[in-house]
Amino acid sequence: MAARKILRLAELQSRSLRPLPRPLQRIGQWRVAQGWAPSTSGYGPLRDLPDWSFLDGRPAPLWRGQLRRLQENQELARRAVKLSRGLDAAAATKPPGGDPDPRLRPKGSRRKPVRTSTDQ
Questions:
Q1: Are 33 and 39 in contact (CB under 8 A)?
Q2: pTM for the structure as a whole
Q3: CA separation for the pair 12, 10 (Å, rounded)
């Protein structure tokens, strides 16, 4: 059924003088193409910076959502540092270019010859 529709669409396009318009681009793809965040709730100055400030230049107090995001970002950074330190410690204990896994052996040296019908 879908193949028939595609064929009909191709026939219509070949017969018509004007080409069919491109399919619409999704909003998120367009925003990324413009160099913006995929959604308005993503990163960026509209989300991360305060909406206003005092006349004397003091910044506005952070809102609950901003405080929550700040705390989540700090926890994520702590976790990344912890995991990175773990990888560094594991790399330090393993000798560089060490022996391959002893369980892996070459198969060619211990293979039995294949018996054929002429070997009997």
A1: no
A2: 0.44
A3: 5
φ, ψ of residue 30 to 5 degrees: the values are: -65, -45
Residue 54 has pLDDT above 70, yes or no: yes
C-alpha dist (Å) from residue 114 to 18, 45, 108, 117: 68, 71, 13, 10
d(CA 6, CA 23): 14
Residue 86: name the closest of 75, 74, 78 by CA: 78
Give the pair of three-digit tokens for residue 49: 């910076």
Task: Give kind and range of the element (H or E) at residue 28.
Answer: helix 27-33
Is the CB of residue 62 less than 8 Å from the CB of residue 70? yes
User: What is the rounded radius of gyration, in angstroms, for the C-alpha atoms of the chain?
Assistant: 32
CA–centroid distance for 71 within its chain? 23
